[in-house]
Amino acid sequence: MLSALGRAFKTPDLRNKLLFTLGIIVIYRIGVFIPAPGVSFGNVQQCMATASASGGVFDMVNLFSGGALLQLSIFALGVMPYITASIIVQLLRVVIPRFQELHEEGAQGQTKLTQYTRYLTIGLAFLNATTIVSLARSGSLLPGCTLPVIPDDSLIHILLIIITLVAGTGVIMWLGEQITEKGVGNGMSLLIFTSIASSFPTALGDIQRTLGWGIFAGIVAIGLLTIIAVVFVEQSQRRIPVQYAKRMVGRRTIGGTTTYIPLKVNMAGVIPVIFASSLLMLPGMLAQFNTPQDGSEPAPWVTWISTYLVRGDHPLYMLLYFLLIIGFAYFYVSITFNPEEVAGNMKKYGGFIPGYRAGRPTERYLSYVLNRITLPGALYLGIVALIPLVALVLFNANQNFPFGGTSLLIIVGVGLDTVKQIDAQLQQRHYEGLLR
């Protein structure tokens, strides 16, 4: 492994790509600690030390931003607006025929969809920045803190903060695209990877200080076993054999080959977990906006939401979270893998699944296999996502528990994808790759 990494850095063009990627990551991490203009950095640090640490509704967004959200830095919004915009554009392919046509046009259509994603990202960033600044002014962003996070809340200062946060999102989007074009791996995914991985040392240090070395060692062991399980499932796939009949094109005979369609056990990736977390975040945000700031009793429905749908250690929250992940897994797989389209392409090029006729029988068989393979993948996602919530109950940890949920799924998924890309580039140069 180390010798393969050494060969990667000895190859000039691959070394330049790796160093460029690391340089962009360093720039991104520096921006996380630069406060937005008009924000009191000292008060923010004191508020983070004294505010409630039991999992607020913005914990996932703060995790994806590498801790920048609660510090109100220039990169406070992180990559969440881009992720949300990408998911929305992908879902719109189902309801807007024009988007599906662009998707099928190849590189030119993808360029147009990427442009729409950028515009939507800026719009969502403006909405998110307005919400976050409003919560910071009211004190709801860091519950339990009485210090003013924004000392001067005049209109000019508020607009300056909002514009800065939106501009920060644009810079993050540009940095991610630079990594994709000139570096190694998917740029936005690597920035998410960096944000989540940066929280691991602090989280593990807090666990060791508060719970002792014994529980710390047990949690690390559980984390390693979970990583092994996640790698195993993420690499698992059902291979459906496909044969292509021989046919004449001019004077050449093509076809007659055997290949397969790889159906991953977890075809939906981490998207169902993000969907479920975002949906369960909405009631908590609604309750925060309707919580009186003068200390009076909140409305009964606000109390009910705060009790059952905000606290991650409540059984009702866990049950809803688990069921939503399973539902979203089936939903997302159904819109990203179209058995009718796959069966049509196979029929067009003379391909067939042994034992099934081309056309409708092939489509029904693919749908049958897809429904069966999605169930274990959805259950796996739900179980992994519940690990930090169970840790919240057993160890009194917070919802940013490092080993489990969205964090581990993204860390392992992005790590595997990046290593595969480096491995492919090494093998192109006749070197032994990173993977055996």
Automatic annotation (TrEMBL):
It is found in: Cell membrane; Membrane. Pfam families: SecY. SUPFAM superfamilies: Preprotein translocase SecY subunit (SSF103491). The keyword Transmembrane helix applies. One of its GO terms (cellular component) is plasma membrane. It is a multi-pass membrane protein. Keywords: Cell membrane, Membrane, Protein transport, Translocation, Transmembrane, Transmembrane helix, Transport. Gene3D superfamilies: SecY subunit domain. Its main location: membrane. The chain crosses the membrane at residues 18-36, 68-95, 116-135, 155-175, 187-205, 211-233, 254-282, 316-337, 373-395. GO terms for biological process: intracellular protein transmembrane transport; protein targeting; protein transport by the Sec complex. The central subunit of the protein translocation channel SecYEG. Consists of two halves formed by TMs 1-5 and 6-10. These two domains form a lateral gate at the front which open onto the bilayer between TMs 2 and 7, and are clamped together by SecE at the back. The channel is closed by both a pore ring composed of hydrophobic SecY resides and a short helix (helix 2A) on the extracellular side of the membrane which forms a plug. The plug probably moves laterally to allow the channel to open. The ring and the pore may move independently. Component of the Sec protein translocase complex. Heterotrimer consisting of SecY, SecE and SecG subunits. The heterotrimers can form oligomers, although 1 heterotrimer is thought to be able to translocate proteins. Interacts with the ribosome. Interacts with SecDF, and other proteins may be involved. Interacts with SecA. Belongs to the SecY/SEC61-alpha family. HAMAP family: SecY. This is Protein translocase subunit SecY.
